[in-house]
Design goal:
Pfam families: AAA_22. The chain is α/β, with parallel strands linked by helices. About 45% of the residues lie in helices and about 10% in strands. It has 2 domains: about 160 residues, P-loop containing nucleotide triphosphate hydrolases (Rossmann fold), CATH 3.40.50.300; about 70 residues, Helicase, Ruva Protein, domain 3 (Orthogonal Bundle). Strands 2-3-4-1-5 form a 5-stranded parallel β-sheet, with helices on both faces. Helix 6 links the parallel strand 3 and strand 4. The chain is elongated. The C terminus is likely disordered.
Length: about 290
């Protein structure tokens, strides 16, 4: 097998199941369309705070990248990923995301005044500032409250600053805390992105295969059903399983990925499944009958 792993063997233009987020491969499931609609709603209505959550690997970062590809010239964007720390650190992350100069010696008041001046100046030139914070579940409660205070820059008539927070489910738990009720009141729209169901998983795999020139049937229905149960519908795990299954299939010169191929890579321990499949799935005849329904 050549250095491209399996693309040449199957006739793909590139690997269809890369792990890194890529908006070109985005599959618009019902859940992803709704989550993206909430993000767009937040931008169009100039909502001060919009929140989208989901389990690890459900495609949140890919949605952000898709959103960034549609942002107009009147929006100045600051993207913050994996921000950590307590009060005072946030403004340094914000300044860095917007390209504002700062030094480690500058105090909170100086950093805030510089940020406020930047936001007002952008507005004076017909632009508003959008801060997107990915992995926002890593923020401390005090930092979320600090974010709320930043939205006080907005006037009663015009919104100069918008915040979009994207994170794992525990972010919703934090927002629901009594001490963050003022923060929760500023949230205009929120959505939780669920894992894919079995039908969506079949559609998702076929979509990515066709995107790279495949026919969408390189995996048998039984193999996809097995992948669904092993991944619990988490796209990132689906990608890992499918990518390695294609490697295995190509190395054995198989024309399709069957359930035995997926079982083999699981047995080899290369990918850790989310959970073992139900007992009935150990019967391949039963598996095929259920997948075909």
């Amino acid at each position: 097998m050549s250095g491209d792993l399996y693309s040449e063997y199957f006739g793909f233009s590139e690997r269809p199941f890369k792990i890194l987020p890529d908006p070109d491969f985005l599959f618009w499931s019902k859940d992803h369309r709704r989550a993206f609609a909430i993000l767009e709603y937040g931008m169009v209505t100039r909502a001060p705070l919009t929140v989208v959550t989901g389990e690890v690997g459900t495609g949140k970062t890919t949605l952000i990248q898709a959103l960034l590809g549609q942002i107009s010239d009147d929006v100045t964007v600051g993207l913050i990923s994996n921000a950590q720390g307590g009060r005072g650190d946030l403004l340094r992350w914000v300044s860095s995301s917007l390209g504002l100069p700062f030094s480690a010696e500058e105090d909170y008041v100086t950093l805030f005044n510089q940020f406020q001046e930047f936001v007002i100046n952008e507005y004076a030139h017909g632009r508003y500032v959008l801060l997107i914070i990915d992995e926002a579940q890593n923020l401390e409660k005090e930092v979320l409250e600090e974010l709320r205070m930043l939205t006080n820059i907005n006037s009663n008539k015009d919104e100069l600053l918008q915040l979009i927070l994207v994170g794992q489910p525990e972010l919703q738990d934090m927002i629901a805390l009594p001490e963050l009720r003022q923060f929760a009141q500023r949230v205009s729209a929120t959505y939780h992105l669920d894992p894919m169901d079995t039908v969506t998983t079949h559609q998702y795999i076929a979509h990515r295969l066709k995107h790279v020139g495949g026919n969408g049937q390189e995996f048998t229905p039984q193999a996809i059903q097995y992948i669904f149960y092993q991944s619990q519908g988490i796209p990132r795990i689906v990608n890992k399983l499918c990518d390695l299954a294609l490697v295995y299939a190509a190395s054995e010169q198989q024309t399709h990925v069957d359930v035995g191929t997926v079982e083999e890579l699981i047995k080899d321990g290369i990918v850790k499944p989310m959970s073992p499949p139900p007992l009935f799935l150990t019967n391949r005849t039963d598996l095929g009958e259920r997948a075909a329904r």
